[in-house]
Amino acid sequence: MLLLEDVIAPLFRELLVQLRMVLVSKISYYFLWSIGSYEEPWSILVEQICKVIYTSSVFYSKIKGGTWISPAEALIHDEGFSISNDLSEVLVLLGMPIVRLPV
What we know:
By secondary structure, the chain is mostly helical. It is built from 4 helices and 4 strands, in the order H-H-H-E-E-E-H-E. The strands form 2 sheets. A two-stranded antiparallel sheet has the order 1-2. Helix 1 (2-22) packs across helix 3.
């Protein structure tokens, strides 16, 4: 458990930070993220990853011409909202840190 929490989770955060500079496609970057539900011990790893990336710049936003921000700063775009694309673009122009994640 300690290996997952204290070694693997921080290494995964560092992997995400480094890969954001290498990968051209933001979509392929986000496919590296863990999604779904996991049984122990993997659920503990996913929970720890969420904790360690909370203040790391791992989300891409179009704010200020495009920048990486932390989950703590981010406002996640709701793809299901019918006029969300227009609203998202307006909010970015107003300086809101909107993040669009692939579905």
